[in-house]
Design a protein that fits this description.
The complex is a heterodimer of chains A (445) and B (237). Chain A has 445 residues and is of the alpha/beta class. Chain A has 15 helices and 16 strands. Chain A has one domain: TIM Barrel. In chain A, α9 packs parallel to α15 and α10 crosses α14. Chain A is globular and about 90 Å long. Chain A starts with 21 loop residues before the first helix and ends in a 15-residue tail after the last helix. Chain B has 237 residues and is mostly beta strands. Chain B has one domain: Glutamate synthase, alpha subunit, C-terminal domain (Pectate Lyase C-like), CATH 2.160.20. Chain B is built from 2 helices and 12 strands, in the order ββαβββββββββαβ. In chain B, strands 1-2-3-4-5-6-7-8-9-10-12-11 form a 12-stranded mixed β-sheet, with helices on one face. Chain B is elongated. Classes of the chains: A alpha/beta (445), B mainly beta (237). The complex binds flavin mononucleotide (FMN). The site of flavin mononucleotide has 30 residues of chain A, from α11.
């Protein structure tokens, strides 16, 4: 018989395993070749329950909206009203999260300060200390107090407008940090009192306190060092938000910062980024509950972060009870991170614009996550600061649009009742009803 | 000024039984380099926390009793003497000046300190000199476990013994121990005592009023094997 007489057998296309998908298999090969885990920057890359799974109901017959172009919708927020003599007043409830000089170039830090200042908000130092560029360009600067205490000194502490005691980050709750040798320039090394070119570990625990009772004394010391003027924030990664927020309040925090697992990082093990902590939409309600149970909601302000990208995200976070949000990754994108303009160079690094995450290697074509002088010079801090300010303005306008549609004359007036969930998971996590039902999974009626 | 302060023989005597911590620290923090109020004694400290923190004037402060957590924290120029014991984090993040504990010190003495001199006449508990960034520390007694953990720079002199895991993951700090070391931490090893080391040690012993000779000490430092991550060292951490 010739082939022509065979019945036609349809070809099945090659089928990949859902368990051993191509990415997973490639990672196994990479691990086998190198013997070391993958380190990268950014936040979680897999899909998680997020703000996208929530919707605003808007006003209708039972509720009246506010006129978009005529009626006021306030956005200002005051942080640190509990104990600090000089609380912080911001025009918008969107702050710039702590990102270290070292992980970011000095130009990038300056651009963040410029953008935040134009928009009337605050920016934050990071692991590595305060640079004159960012202090000079930031009207309101929050100084981070981290386990490593790199660059920590009394003069800068007193120059800060607020102090943020960092207990953890959403990307790696329970983890320390690492700045690899490639990014340790003379200036970075000097600020951290370490030799150039070596890996710099940031400890995961503070060197001189452990637990909430010690933290209370540490906060007392920080207040005594700064004449009780500056608001003291405590930042935690979202893991056990009810207890962590309650303990931070008990320890004397003026403001608590809650960073969800989607939150960005400069450099962390992939396994940590993707497998520790809880999504931000699941963390806000327990945190607010803790504040309410202590009679401290709106007295100790709550800032939330981790994957905030749009004005809708801002509005949803606030409707769930936050006083403000913080952005990291989105601010870097606004400056120019991962811009397709540099596609040729991303290709040379074996990646593509939008996917570049080897921030720890210090070869960022956009000049943001680098200490290389030639690359860093590509970022114009004035223009980049302007882009950030524009973006912050859009976030604010978007959040106001949604708030007015819900009939709210201030972003702070939004409430969980304005929201429903698209998925059962999101309904359970954010404790709002599944759309079209009155069902909140996990709630006893 | 508050009635809690009395001037006796040119010494400003501040009674903490009659005033608040804020009044005390406020008075000390308001002093500058030109002040003529250069001598201070604090009575009735009763283990209060955050005593004499953040002082930037080159004044002499005597704390007459036991001190709580973070005594002389972030000190930047003052000479502080504690006539008693000090709790956790004495002289933490000191920038310059000196702190002298006449009794024992609790955990994390001199943590992250950048400069100045910390002298402890008695023993220091765990994590003495943790993450130190340039300070000189002389402990006349012994130190607890994990001392000089991740110590970056500066000198730690221990006239007694050292507990377990001395100098774990340390960077460029120099450690000098006269007595026994229970165990060395990761990447910490015995080093040869160079002339430079001996000079540094001799000067510190004199400053601290010790009678020991540098020759009685062993010098420890970083083997520098963990400075850049290598997979074959993973078991060391
Ligand atoms: C480049 C980079 C550096 C960071 N450095 C720090 C830091 O030094 N300290 C800190 O507390 N958080 C740090 N973070 C985390 C941010 O403060 C913030 O929690 C996170 O970026 C928020 O999530 P988002 O990136 O999705 O907005 C860093 C994040 C990035 C992207």
């Amino acid at each position: 018989m010739t082939e022509d007489h065979l019945p036609h057998i349809p070809q099945t296309p090659p089928r990949f395993s859902a368990t051993f998908d191509p990415h997973t298999a490639a990672e196994i090969r990479r691990a086998a070749a190198t013997g070391i885990y993958d380190i990268r920057g950014g936040g979680t890359k897999r899909k998680l329950p997020h703000f996208d799974d929530l919707l605003f109901l808007g006003a209708s017959v039972s509720r009246y909206p506010l006129e978009g172009y005529r009626e006021k919708c306030g956005t200002e927020v005051t942080l640190g009203t509990r104990f600090a003599k000089k609380p912080i007043h911001l025009k918008i409830p969107i702050t710039i999260a702590g990102m270290s000089f070292g992980s970011l170039s000095a130009n990038a830090k300056e651009a963040l300060g410029r953008g935040a200042t134009i928009a009337g908000t605050s920016t934050t130092t990071g692991d590595g200390g305060m640079t004159p560029e960012e202090r000079g360009q930031s009207r309101t600067l929050v100084y981070q107090y981290l386990p490593s205490r790199y660059g920590m000194n009394l003069t800068d502490l007193r120059k800060a407008d607020a102090i943020e005691v960092v207990v953890g980050q959403g990307a790696k709750p329970g983890g320390g940090g690492m700045l690899l040798g490639q990014k340790i320039s003379d200036r970075v090394a000097h600020m951290r009192n370490l030799p150039k070119g070596i890996d710099q570990r940031s400890a995961c625990r503070h060197p001189d306190w452990t637990g909430p009772d010690d933290l209370e004394i540490k906060i007392l010391e920080l207040r005594e060092l700064t004449n009780w003027e500056k608001p003291i924030y405590v930042k935690v990664g979202a893991s056990r938000p009810y207890y962590d927020i309650a303990l931070a309040v008990k320890a004397g925090a003026d403001v608590v910062v809650l960073d969800g697992m989607q939150g960005g990082t400069a450099a962390t093990q992939e396994v940590f980024i993707e497998h520790a902590g809880i999504p931000i939409i699941s963390a806000i309600r327990p945190a607010v509950q803790a504040l309410q149970d202590l009679g401290m909601h709106r007295k100790v302000q709550l800032i939330v972060s981790g994957g905030v990208r749009t004005g809708a995200d801002v509005a949803k976070a606030m409707a769930l009870g936050a006083d403000a949000v913080a952005i990291g990754t989105a601010a870097l994108i606004a400056l120019g991170d991962n811009d397709p303009h540099w596609e040729d160079e991303y290709r040379k690094l074996g990646t593509t614009a939008g996917a570049y995450d080897d921030w720890h290697e210090g070869r960022d074509p956009a000049g943001i996550t680098t200490q290389d002088e030639v690359l860093a010079a590509r970022l114009d801090p004035v223009k980049a600061g302007r882009r950030l300010a524009n973006y912050l303005s859009v976030l604010t306008l978007e959040a106001q649009t949604l708030a007015r549609a819900c009939g709210k004359s201030h972003l702070h007036n939004m409430e969980p009742e304005d929201l429903v969930a698209l998925t059962i998971e999101a309904a359970a996590m954010a404790q709002v009803p599944l759309a079209g039902t009155n069902w909140i999974p996990g709630r006893n009626f | 000024m508050s009635t809690a302060v009395q001037v006796m023989d040119d010494v400003n005597v501040f009674d903490l039984a009659a005033a608040t911590l804020r009044e005390l620290n406020g008075a000390l923090q308001n002093l500058d380099a030109t002040t003529n109020q250069t001598a201070w004694t604090i009575l009735n400290p009763r283990g209060a926390h955050a005593l004499a923190v953040g002082v930037t004037a080159p004044v002499n402060i005597t704390i007459d009793g036991h001190a709580g957590y973070y005594c002389a924290g972030m000190n930047d120029g003052a000479t502080v003497v504690i006539n008693g014991n000090a709790a956790t984090g004495v002289a933490e993040n000191m920038m310059s000046g000196s702190v002298h504990v006449r009794g024992d010190a609790s955990q994390s003495a001199g943590a992250t300190a950048h400069g100045g001199l910390l002298i402890i006449d008695g023993n220091a508990s765990a994590r003495c000199g943790i993450s130190m960034k340039g300070v000189d520390i002389v402990v006349k007694g012994s130190v607890g476990h994990m001392s000089a953990f991740m110590a970056q720079s500066g000198n730690l002199v221990i006239c007694g013994n050292a507990g377990e895991a001395l100098g774990d993951s340390l960077y460029e700090a120099r450690l000098f121990v006269k007595g026994k070391v229970a165990s060395l931490g990761a990447d910490c090893e015995v080093k040869e005592m160079t002339d430079e080391d001996r000079d540094i040690l001799a000067a510190l012993l004199i400053k601290a009023g010790c009678t020991e000779s540098p020759d009685e000490f062993t010098r420890y430092g970083s083997a520098r094997k963990l400075y850049n991550f290598h997979v074959d060292n993973a078991g060391e951490y």
